[in-house]
Amino acid sequence: MPLVSAALLAIACGQAHAQSSVTIFGVADIGYVHTSANGTAGSVSRSQLASDGNTSSRLGFRGTEDLRGGMKAGFWLEGALAIDQPGSLTLQRRSTVELSGSFGEVRLGRDYVPTFTNLTVAYHPFGTNGVGNAGQLFYPVAAGGTTSSTHVRSNNGINYFSPNVAGYQANVMYAFGEHLSNEGATKQNDTYVGGRVSYANGPLNLSAATGKTKFATGDYTQSNFAANYQLGAAKLMYLWGENKVGVTKTTSNLVGVQYKVSGTGEVRAAYTDLKAVGVANDATQMTVGYVHNLSKRTALYTNYSVVDNKGTGKQFVVGGGDKTTVAGGNTTGYEFGVRHSF
């Protein structure tokens, strides 16, 4: 009898393992960063160790359970890490519970808004990391008392992803502001609604997205269009983005490339032009970089970037550096580091 019981227990454990799983995952990314900005009293510079030059450092837990009949349940809890300055880990990245099946996938909780997806490394050579990140010229500029809190993620979201049908896929999201009915739009984000449609067929990928968040001080609208095309060893990229905050607007256009020079090395380059209306100033950014994969999990990287403010502008900077104090001045930055995924 003890042998029979042990056998039955082993079978039960095997079935449970086949039906559900939990994974611990993460990224540790750290490097040396040097930034400088010209000023009225000479240039000012800063050197530091910093996280996230190539990929955002994180620690996460995800799991799935097979509900049978093609249905699955899952969860995803992910927090940000600062490798150079470790502190409390908060689940401020993705924090969702989801159901998926033939109908697609529904996520509840904190997640990327559809309008952010086109700013990632799939359509921008440097994504939103390091001195070449998309955030510098593609995120909104605060105006009229409105500071956006939904240009990357939103809390309280219902996020739906359709099945992929012949290369087409849709993503729509509604996020509650959770305010009282007689409060109106609060100074924090009220409600967000947005959507994204993408198409992938062989070497060609296309995607368009738009979303709007209500604010008491002026609504924020983000729209973008992205395309990439794999031409031999080169992935050619184009990204257009527009941010409207009240009556102000910034519009950015990027052309870029990721070019594999070997089985382990990739050169990256991007040029972005920004036009501003009623806020900040026009600007351009040029970035070049190189990523060398030591293995499937570990890579070395280096990037160099220049942001040039136009006219009398001083708004835009490279990385986490200081602003220029010269009208129409520029900022520069370079970095090299290591990224390990687990």
Could you characterize what this model shows?
The chain has one domain: Porin, CATH 2.40.160.10. 6% of the residues lie in helices and 54% in strands. A 16-stranded antiparallel β-barrel has the order 1-3-4-5-6-7-8-9-10-11-12-13-14-15-16-17. The chain is mostly beta strands.
Spatially, the strands of the biggest sheet line up as 1-3-4-5-6-7-8-9-10-11-12-13-14-15-16-17
Major beta-sheet overview:
16 strands, antiparallel, barrel
Question: What proportion strand?
Answer: over 45%
Please name the CATH topology.
Answer: Porin
In sequence order, what are the helices and strands, one letter per element? HEEEEEEHEEEEEEEEEEE
Helix content: under 10%
Instruction: Identify low-pLDDT runs.
Output: 1-18
| Mass-distribution shape | globular
Helix tally equals: 2
Overall structural class, as computed from helix and strand content, comes to mainly beta
**N-C termini distance:** 43 Å
Mean pLDDT: 90
CATH class: Mainly Beta
CATH architecture: Beta Barrel
Q: Tally of extended strands?
A: 17
| Radius of gyration based on Cα positions | 22 Å
GO biological process, one term: monoatomic ion transport
Keywords: Cell outer membrane, Ion transport, Membrane, Porin, Signal, Transmembrane, Transmembrane beta strand, Transport
Subcellular location: Cell outer membrane
Organism: Limnohabitans radicicola
